[in-house]
Write a structure and sequence with these properties.
- The complex is a heterodimer of chains A (472) and B (775).
- Chain A is α+β, with helices and mostly antiparallel strands.
- Chain A contains seven helices and 20 strands.
- In chain A, a hairpin with a 5-residue loop joins β14 and β15.
- In chain A, α1 runs antiparallel to α7, α2 packs antiparallel against α6 and α3 packs antiparallel against α5.
- Chain A is rod-shaped.
- Chain B is rod-shaped.
- Chain B contains 15 helices and 33 strands.
- In chain B, β8 and β9 form a beta hairpin.
- Classes of the chains: A alpha+beta (472), B alpha+beta (775).
């Protein structure tokens, strides 16, 4: 077939040529204007899928970053609060050591006790601190003030009201980090190491195990003194503190009275109605010497007493129990004691080693300093020494928690940086997938424009060609 | 020659004029669509015999032919159907593509990200109201985007079908037109005349028809016969109109008048529209639907077992309605698997906790769920939980209400003090059965006990048991607790695991009772002897968080008798629900009472001081829950769900949550600032989801990619087919088109021959004049 060409086909060709090239120019212009290579999924289906996958990946990184950003101030605040708490505990330690100085007067000790109590209040407010509306150290019970002061058996003690849960956030796929540290592990770890008694009563641990935590007060009460000294000497009873058997020796020749291994006491003249004689353990017996005949006396005085763990209910002891069970139902303490060595009445500070919390130790030290029980200087020092030991073990947990929070803060910082890097990297890849290369796009646009111009120019000339131009 | 010469001249004049008229017709139709160039074929007239010579008698127009190629025309019709099919699909697809908002992140993808981001933010600060509101807001945006997409897809589909109706009307008009042309052309043909212009118009009508629907046609002497998808549309004399019908499933199809089968539409504009409405849109809708459905199910599944920060619920109403499938007016008799619930119920367990508002103490109840049980038996199971009542309202919504002073939830609470009954070294005098149920008692078996008030005998009679030879713990405890002597003696029976314990109601060292004998001792495995209470009761504390992934129980039993922390070699054996010993822990001498001992899967246990007795079968059971609803019944009912609905159109956020964002169940175990449920929801962002076989984002990405790919391949196909169509049109133009210059040349040619003929006539005339002048 011969190739006929017609005006119709010329016009059509010119039209479609211009249309096509105009489309290219417009498309290139869109790319330049939006900076995107993929404007609709059909522009590049594979690229679209990839871009969407990348976007989701970036989004999940963003959500991890959000969690990190939200967690950092919490951990940082907790960390700085713990730092402050550490400083306070160190101050308190210094105060307690100061209190052990033998030259202090009671007034001086009272001042120290007051300072210690102030430190206690400060520490309590630090550990009960909040970030926004949540308590930092109450585990997952963030609405509950974690450390609360309550009075049990007339003693102030601090109880932990939070829980042991830790709240974690996701900072990566299957990677979680704890945002909080429960106060129970920071300020009072349970690492029971045995029961100790601070006192002069001679009480010891029984054969069965004990259950309890922190400090308890054990009271041994003197109920009556029995025995017959003879030689006209009578027992006053009032104020006696001996428990169990104590030998009483009155030497008429030297005019002295001696209780057990205690120092002999000279009998003054006139004969006293209430002479206090002390055994070497400090236990006392009060004697009425007004009827003394002057004869020598060798007798055994026996102190009868009873014992109480909660300060309320007393049960009698006879000095032969090797495993006496004492229960304080209010705080759930079970204590087993051996009373065979008991020689005097008095208070015993019972410490469940390794289970005390800082607050109880501070309160206890303040109480020791105030010395309401009228302890001897040496006893105070011994108790304070003991408090220091407990405080040091508490301080260790505090430092461990502090280090823990610090390393978590560092890990979050690191994660933040890493996620940031990753996000930037992925954004880069995403940009490579869906963004237009501007140089290319502009070049393409120029090329399309040129082609369009050529099409227009040639078309314009073509459509003017007609035989009519030459027919007259 | 005279007259004859004039006749020759006249024939030449007339022929030239017809030729010039045809040229004029061509020139005036140069731009007429479908016009075929016509040309006059001239032929010499029959010669006359003069003097033994065959003298020519002139010229005459023999035929008026149009330049056309019927094979080409046929191909153009077929090609037009292909192009228009693809083009009409493109129109619909482009509209859908434009509201996806991808890949620039303005669509569902971005909102999905936004939702997970807000959940992540909340997980770091679970009690923050602003963040809670943000989670609800972002969830709502996501839901409404799904709704909107659903509506847009529906509309796109409806638009396409409306367009089908319109095109069918056009087809019917064209078909009528073809029939009319058939008749006219036949009339001309009967006179032996080829009606070129009418033929062109018919070809053009066939092409227009081909653009609308796939046709085949046969040119017969009487006219053209047109078939579309196997059904006759036009015969030389008659027409069958198409009509649009919808079948039971709402599918659209075309029927030809008088046809028995639907028209098989494969091409043309209608072909494209129907393919778009029938395949492309529903496929994409189905994908978005399953994405929405999975999103709703998976999120609700995790959320429903969570606990809001302010504790459990006083009342909960299901968001999904039950259906009265058998139409008897009640919802209760339907089985769970056929109660019209949007999600499947599986065989599994549901754990319900009832929590005291004042003390925070709770009891956990495990309910077995079976898809084959009826709704009312499930309701009854919930109802039987103390202080809870369940009901179904008139519209089929299930609801649970807690009694005064308690709340309920479906969380994974861990009981920190599992030995409530004190059957493990507790303060009460207590003796347990030697093994668990069933107990092989016989009717009339006795148990002799000496309590505080003196000896008495409990007799077991067969009527109190379903099968006394296999008595259950509940039956045994029921019989014991109903015994008046036992009550008088200050005693009771407690069930622990599958064991039954006889114990004193009061605690303390002074509480004692004696089991002295009886015929049931063997079956029950009860030891004889004195059981005494104690002042120092062993307190059991469970700590930690269960990190395993199975629901189960741990039973703790002492090995040997002795005091915690004191007796050398005292151990506690830990047995799991299958009877396997998972741990043996030392609690004797050397164990510091109260110290937590690590068990497997994140749990710890501690014991305070007290006496344990293997002789008296001491035991307690700790249950641990990894998934408190393995039956999915909560998600199916929509109880404490996060999203409501079951597809893209019904996707929504539960109304309660919008009103009170504090109802977002963020915690898994009931801790105020717990975020376990949130972290689990967050994990959905990347984890593979059952049912989609991909994560949400991968599924979505693939789905959009697939749409893009389909549109792209249709676009490419349009380009290819359009190119083919264009080249066919160009070929037709070559064959049939009018070249003005050519016509002008022809015009001059015939003008000159007209002039020549005039001159000839003039010559003849002057010759004749000359001759006449001779007269």
């Amino acid at each position: 077939m011969n190739l006929r060409s017609t005006q119709g086909s010329v016009f059509r060709q010119v039209r479609s040529g211009i249309q096509l090239n105009l489309g290219r120019v417009s498309r290139a212009q869109q790319e330049v204007a939006t900076g995107k290579r993929i404007l609709r999924p059909s522009d590049d289906p594979v690229g679209t899928s990839y871009a969407i996958a990348l976007r989701r990946q970036i989004a999940s990184i963003e959500s991890y970053k959000t969690a990190v950003d939200r967690s950092r101030p919490v951990i940082d605040t907790a960390s700085s609060q713990l730092q402050e708490a550490s400083n306070m505990v160190a101050d308190a330690r210094a105060l307690i050591i100061q209190g052990m100085n033998g030259t202090l007067s009671q007034a001086d000790r009272d001042t120290l006790a007051q300072q210690l109590e102030l430190t206690f209040d400060g520490l309590l407010s630090v550990v009960n601190s909040r970030w926004e509306d949540r308590y930092l150290f109450s585990g997952t019970a963030t609405g509950t003030e974690p450390f609360q002061v309550e009075t049990v058996n007339g003693q102030r003690r601090v109880v932990y009201a939070g829980d042991d849960g830790s709240q974690s956030v996701a900072i990566g796929r299957n990677v979680e980090i704890d945002v909080n540290t429960p106060g129970s592990t920071i300020f009072g770890r349970f690492d029971y190491s045995g029961t100790t008694y601070q006192g002069m009563t001679g009480i010891q641990s029984g054969t069965s195990a004990d259950s309890g935590s922190g400090y308890s007060q054990l009271t041994l009460r003197h109920d009556a003194t029995t025995g017959t000294p003879g030689a006209g000497i009578a027992l006053v009873q009032m104020g006696d503190t001996i428990l169990g058997d104590h030998d009483l020796v009155v030497d008429g020749t030297l005019g002295t009275v001696q209780l057990g291994a205690g120092s002999p006491v000279s009998i003054p003249s006139p004969l006293p109605a209430d002479l206090v004689v002390r055994d070497s353990d400090g236990s006392e017996v009060h004697l009425d010497l007004t009827g003394w005949t002057g004869a020598d006396v060798t007798a055994t005085l026996t102190g009868e007493g009873s014992i109480s763990l909660d300060g309320g209910t007393f049960q009698p002891i006879d000095g032969t129990e090797t495993d006496l069970e004492l229960i304080d139902p209010q705080i759930g303490t079970v204590l087993h004691v051996d009373t065979t060595g008991v020689t005097r009445a008095g208070g015993e500070l019972v410490t469940f080693g390794g289970t005390t919390n800082i607050f109880d130790t501070l309160l206890g030290a303040a109480a020791d300093l105030r010395n309401a029980d009228g302890l001897l200087q040496s006893e105070i020092v011994e108790r304070l020494n003991h408090r220091i030991t407990e405080l040091d073990s508490n301080f260790d947990s505090l430092q461990i928690a502090n280090g823990n929070l610090g390393s978590r803060a560092a890990r979050l910082q690191l994660t933040d940086d890493r996620l940031g890097d990753l996000s930037v990297q992925l954004e880069g890849i995403l940009s490579g997938v869906e963004d237009a290369d501007l140089t290319d796009a502009v070049l393409e646009m120029t090329r399309a424009e040129q082609t369009l111009e050529v099409a227009q120019a040639t078309g314009a000339r073509l459509i003017q060609q007609s035989l009519l131009n030459y027919l007259r | 020659m005279g007259i004859q010469g004039l006749n020759i001249g006249l024939s030449a004049l007339r022929s030239s004029r017809s030729a010039m008229e045809t040229i004029g017709h061509n020139l005036s139709n140069a731009n007429t669509e479908g016009y075929s160039r016509q040309s006059v074929t001239l032929g010499a007239t029959s010669p006359r015999s003069v003097d033994g010579l065959a003298i020519g008698t002139g010229v005459e127009p023999e035929a008026l032919t149009r330049a056309t190629d019927t094979v080409l025309n046929r191909r153009i019709v077929v090609q037009a159907a292909k192009v228009t099919r693809l083009e009409s699909m493109m129109v619909g697809m482009n509209s859908i593509e434009s509201f996806l908002g991808e890949p620039n992140g303005f669509g569902i993808g971005g909102l999905l990200d936004g939702f997970f981001n807000s959940v992540s933010e909340l997980s770091a600060s679970p009690t923050d109201l602003a963040l809670r509101s943000e989670v609800v807001r972002s969830a709502d945006s996501l839901a409404s985007q799904f709704n909107q997409l659903g509506v847009q897809l529906d509309e796109a589909k409806a638009d396409a079908l409306r367009r089908v109706d319109f095109v069918v009307d056009e087809i019917n008009t064209i078909v009528d037109n073809i029939r009319d042309l058939n008749v006219e052309i036949a009339q001309f043909a009967s006179q032996g005349i080829a009606a070129n212009d009418l033929l062109d118009r018919r070809d053009e009508a066939l092409r227009a028809l081909g653009e609308r629907i796939n046709i085949t046609y046969y040119e017969e002497p009487a006219g053209v016969r047109v078939l579309a998808g196997g059904q006759l549309l036009a015969s030389p004399v008659s027409t069958s109109h198409l009509e649009v019908r919808r079948d039971g499933n709402g599918e659209t199809f075309l029927m030809a008048e008088g046809g028995t089968e639907p028209v098989e539409v494969t091409g043309g504009e209608i072909g494209g529209l129907m393919e778009f409405a029938r395949d492309f849109v529903p496929e994409f809708q189905a994908e978005m639907g399953s994405l929405a459905r999975s999103m709703i199910l998976e999120t609700s599944r995790l959320h429903s077992t969570g606990i809001p920060p302010n504790g459990g619920f006083r009342h909960l109403t299901a968001s999904n309605q039950l259906t009265d499938s058998n139409g008897n007016g009640g919802f209760g008799d339907e089985i769970l698997g056929n109660a019209g619930l949007p999600f499947d119920v599986h065989e599994g367990q549901l754990y319900v906790n009832v929590v005291s508002e004042s003390t925070g103490e709770f009891a956990t109840y495990a309910i077995d769920v079976d898809p084959d049980q009826t709704v009312s038996t499930f309701l009854q199971d919930i109802d039987e939980i103390p202080l809870l009542s369940a009901s179904i309202d008139g519209s089929g919504r299930f609801s649970i209400v807690a009694g005064g002073g308690v709340r309920f939830d479906f969380g994974r609470r861990l009981d920190p003090t599992p030995d409530d009954a004190g059957t493990f070294g507790g303060g009460r005098a207590s003796v347990g059965t030697g093994s668990g149920e069933p107990f092989a008692l016989s009717g009339g078996d006795t148990l002799d006990i000496t309590g505080s008030g003196g000896p008495f005998t409990v007799t077991f009679s067969a009527i109190d048991f379903d099968d006394i030879g296999a008595a259950t713990a509940a039956e045994l405890a029921g019989v014991l607790n109903a015994n008046a002597n036992l009550q008088t003696a200050g005693m009771r029976a407690e069930i622990v695991g599958d064991q039954v314990f006889l114990q004193s109601v009061a605690a303390g060292a002074t509480e004692t009772f004696d089991i002295t004998g009886g015929s049931s001792l063997g079956a029950l495995g009860l030891p004889t002897g004195t059981a005494s209470g104690q002042n120092a009761a062993v307190e059991v504390a469970i700590g930690g968080t269960y990190t395993g992934d199975e629901n189960g129980t741990l039973t703790f039993r002492p090995i040997g008798d002795g005091a915690v922390g004191t007796t050398p070699g005292l151990q506690v054996e830990v047995v799991d629900e299958t009877g396997t010993t998972v741990a043996t822990i030392d609690v004797g001498e050397g164990y510091a009472p109260g110290t937590a001992i690590q068990l497997a899967d994140g749990l710890t246990v501690s014991f305070t001081f007290g006496e344990l007795s293997a002789t008296n079968n001491d035991a307690f059971v700790q249950s641990h829950v990894a998934n408190s609803d393995t039956s999915d019944i909560l998600a199916a009912f929509g109880l404490n769900s996060f999203f409501t609905g079951s597809d893209a159109a019904s996707f929504g956020v539960r109304g309660d949550l919008v009103d009170d964002p504090f109802l977002i169940a963020s915690s898994g175990s009931g801790a105020k600032a717990g975020n376990q449920a949130l972290l689990e929801i967050l994990a959905l962002q990347q984890d593979e989801v059952e049912g989609l076989d991909a994560s949400f984002m991968d599924f979505y990405g693939n789905s959009i990619g697939r749409v893009g790919f389909e549109i792209d391949s249709v676009q490419n196909a349009v380009d290819v087919e359009q190119f083919l169509a264009d080249s066919l049109t160009a070929r037709k133009e070559q064959v049939s088109g009018v070249n003005v210059d050519e016509e002008l040349v022809n015009l001059i040619q015939f003008e000159q021959s007209f002039t020549a003929a005039s001159r000839f006539i003039q010559t003849i005339n002057s010759i004749t004049d000359e001759v006449m002048s001779l007269i």
